[in-house]
Amino acid sequence: MLEIIDIGVEKGIAYRVGGKVTEEEMTSVLGLFKEKIAKDEKLIVYQEVVSIGGVEIDALVEKFKFFKDVGISHFSRIAVVTHKKWIHRLVDLEDKLFKNIEMKGFSLAEKDKAIEFLKKA
What we know:
Elements: E1 2-5, E2 12-17, H1 23-38, E3 43-49, H2 57-70, E4 75-82, H3 85-97, E5 102-106, H4 111-119
């Protein structure tokens, strides 16, 4: 499940991941990204990971197509909120690899800090 949520960040895109992600759900979120890119807006992303139950192959294909076509230069800030420590380590690594994108991991108890981080963009 990939569900669009409102976190009160006007220019942000926020979603929650819980369980298996379908192609339709992935296409929906990527569509929001494309809308912002078409308006020449930087992408500010809030991703809340409750659980990971897998991803449909077609959803992965859509994600890879998006990054092949668009790249990562449109991303400005990404906050990943989760209780999973290994995801926090992955976000820290990605933050070091992708110098032009500010990425930070937060615990579920730190949702407010994640939102404040995104508002600074």
